[in-house]
Each structure stands twice: as C-alpha cells, then as structure tokens.
Amino acid sequence: MSEHKELVIVGAGLAGPLLSIYMARRGHKVSVYELRADMRKQDIPAGRSINLALAERGINALREAGALSLIEDQLIAMRGRMIHDHDGSQVLQPYGQKEGEVIYSVARGELNKRLMDLAEQKHGVEFHFDHRLHTLQPESCAMEFKRSHDDSIVRVAAERVMATDGGGSIVRRTMAAYSGYDSHEEILPHAYKELRIPAAENGKHRIDGNSLHIWPRGGFMLIALPNPGGDFTVTLFLPSEGPISFVELDGREEVSAFFQAHFPDTVALLPDLEKDFFANPAGELGTIRSYPYHYKDKILLLGDAAHAVVPFHGQGMNCAFEDCLELDRILDQCGDDWGDAFAAFSKQRKPNCDAIADMALENYLEMRDSVTDPIYLLQKKLSFKLENQYADRFIPRYSMVMFHHEIPYAEAKHRGEIQAGILRELTAGKTSLDEVDFQLAGRLISEKLECMG
Ligand SMILES: Cc1cc2nc3c(=O)[nH]c(=O)nc-3n(C[C@H](O)[C@H](O)[C@H](O)COP(=O)(O)OP(=O)(O)OC[C@H]3O[C@@H](n4cnc5c(N)ncnc54)[C@H](O)[C@@H]3O)c2cc1C
Of 108, 163, 201, 266, which sees the most CB atoms within 10 A? Predict the structure, then answer.
C-alpha cells in the first residue's frame, strides 16, 4: 500500500524548504522527503561548504517568502575581496560602489534549519527524514523511499513531484533514462577542501571580518569566508591531478611545505592545518546542464538538480532560491495550470541558468588569476566610473549578477560581453584612468548598449 500525497518535494537541502514555503502558501499540501536525518535534532554536517555567499537574488527570494527576517541576525556583510599577495600584503577590492552593495556570508546549516522551522511551524509542511528516494515512476509519480536505519521501503504516490535533490539528483537521472531528455555533467578538473581559521582568543576574527579573503595563485587559490563565531571557513581550490594537485599532497610534510611555499601568511592562522586537511574530503565540482526541467505536468527539477554550477560566482544557492520565486510568479500567471507552468519554467529558466553556469566558470579564472592583473584592475576602476556616468546603460557585470535581481542572468551575460569589448577598446595600451578617452566611452556606450528599462 502506498500513501497518497498531493505535492512531494524530494530533498530538504537549501532549495527544498524554501520551495515548500512558496507552494504551501499557494494552498497546497506539501510533503518533503529527505535522505539525511533531521539536522535540527542530530548534529550532522550540512553537506557541502559550511558557509556560503548570499547575494541579492537569494535575498529577494527569501524576502518574498517572508523568510529573510529569520536569518538576518546570521548574516555577515562582506564588502569586497581582500586579496592576499605572496609577501603577505593585503588589498581590498570592493564588490560595488553604492550603499548596500555587499554580499553576505551565511552558515549553510543555520539557514537550512531556520527555513525548515518556518515551513513546518508556519506553513504546515510535513518533513520526512531518513527517506532516500530509491525509485520513481514518472507517469504515476509512484515512489519508493529507502530508510537507512532498518533498510525498509516506504511507498508514496503523489499528484506531482518537485525535485530539489541536488547535483546527484536521482529524479533527473530517472527522467533522462525514461524520456531520453538532455542531461549532461561536466566535472571540473579541480576539487575543493575545507579548512578552518579559528577565532582569536578574544573571540574576534583574526583577519578582516567583513571581507571575502582570496589568496590567488594562478592555477589554484585559497579563499576564506567569515563566520559569526569569529572563525573563518577556508576553502582550497586545486587541480585534482598534476604537478601541483591534491594527489601530490599525500602526507603531512607535503601539505605543510605546500602552504609554507604558496600561502605563508596563513600558516600561523591555520593551527590544525594538517589535521583538517586529512580529516576533510576533497569535494568534486561540476556543471550540470539539462533540458527540459520538467516532465509533463508531473515532475519539475529545481536548484542543483536541474542546473548545478561551479561555486566561483557564489550563485548556486542564489539561483536555486530564484528558481522558487520564479516558479511562484509563473504559477500566478498560469492560474495554477501545472503543465503550462512547468513548460514556461523550463523555457524561461534555461537560458538564465546556462548563463550563470558560464559566468561561474569564467569567474574561477578571474578569482585565481586576473584579480592581480593591472589591466583587470584598470578596467574595474573604469567600469565603476562608467556606471556613475551612464547609470541607465552601464553596470559592471559582477554588480548585475550580485546586486540586481531584476536583470536576468542571460541579460547580465550578454550586456557583460558588450561591456567587456568597450572596456578593452578604452584601455588598450593605457595604464591609468587619466589616459582614457571619455568622449569615445560615451559614444561607444550609447551606440552599443541599450538603455535599461
Ligand atoms: C564548495 C561550495 C561552495 C559554494 N558556495 C556557494 C556560495 O557561496 N553561494 C551560493 O549561492 N552557492 C554556493 N554553492 C552552491 C550551493 O551549495 C548549491 O547551489 C545549493 O546547495 C543548491 O541547493 P539545492 O537545494 O538545489 O541542493 P542541495 O543543497 O545539495 O540539497 C539537496 C538535498 O537533497 C537531498 N537528497 C539527495 N538525494 C536524495 C534522495 N535520493 N532522496 C532524498 N533526498 C535526497 C540531500 O541530502 C540534500 O539535503 C557552493 C557549493 C559548493 C560545493
């Protein structure tokens, strides 16, 4: 016998609970099934990356769901990238130039727990933990879940299923096998490992607590995001194989020598470097592109299940949250006609999710390499100046992605390409802003960039 449910959401990571709030607010009876135990009752790791960068798209989706106020006390503003050179010198590169143009560090676990509390307590969403989706019949939405504590099988049927079961989504794999729809994964040849800078004895941050720290080293990099307790979550991004890679760092001495050679100013900040290095696994990174995101009016993929991206633009969660808000808006327009809404969601989100996937890949190069390049720095200064002078036409691409939720990702990417051409032309052979021809800048901008609505 299987239990019958109206709307099942598979996966209670970051997107699932927010989606459940949106759907319950529309009057649907929502049941969420999650493979892990309830992190509010058991101390379990929240999965990948301990903290994340939350930006305007994610904030807007939380705000619209009435969830932002719940998490505000946990947000740490990061006003820019603090670049750490080999010699230990530090330079702040602000993310934006206007009041409020900051991004926020937030703890994944705390965000996840508070969203689940809100969904359960205010919106009556039912959560079922320790339920791993094992099989799904797309036509009937009949599902089998496995429970790890006794290996039992729970059968559930639903009118429809929304899948927020992450990059390894079994729902996406089932849809691809069943209907032959397009899905492919590109694994990055680089992986990541998390480390920790503990708080100072007085409980304060040991390095600036309102920046995202980067140690760019060309082919690899280290980053650190602040936590409310005064500590930092540090992430090493490094090739998986090759002369400078995770495979080469196979002993305590190798790890210690690697950090001494490439990140000497971090050695005193990382007292548990070798212990953490071998205790924490190296995580894989990749991009998932699939299409369509739906199957008839039965199944919809959202978040990483549909379109995982590499983390270098800090947008995976933000994009997953934006998915939830977009679906809600589309349902308003379609009068809850699920077939039309799912098809519209696939069509509207695909170009935007592909665009952020591309920009996230490009940003890896920028973070680990270009941020120290004089021409990059000149172009960044120039783009802030052009934004001041031509606010209705020119906004730096990073700002469009991080601070302007009203500009879709695909438009940010398209305008960003045109702007990059303009910046290249204006800075060719130049070393300072004084040498830039601002008359030419005005002409190029009005010829090439349409006014933003
Ligand atoms: C190192 C790193 C750093 C990142 N930094 C940022 C950042 O700064 N900013 C940002 O916006 N994004 C960031 N991201 C991306 C972000 O983590 C993801 O985009 C986000 O978690 C996607 O949310 P989701 O709900 O779609 O998937 P997830 O959060 O992965 O949740 C999926 C859930 O489904 C459950 N599940 C999986 N399979 C099953 C099953 N068979 N049955 C039942 N449940 C299942 C999982 O247990 C999990 O709880 C980062 C990612 C990484 C790896």
Answer: 163
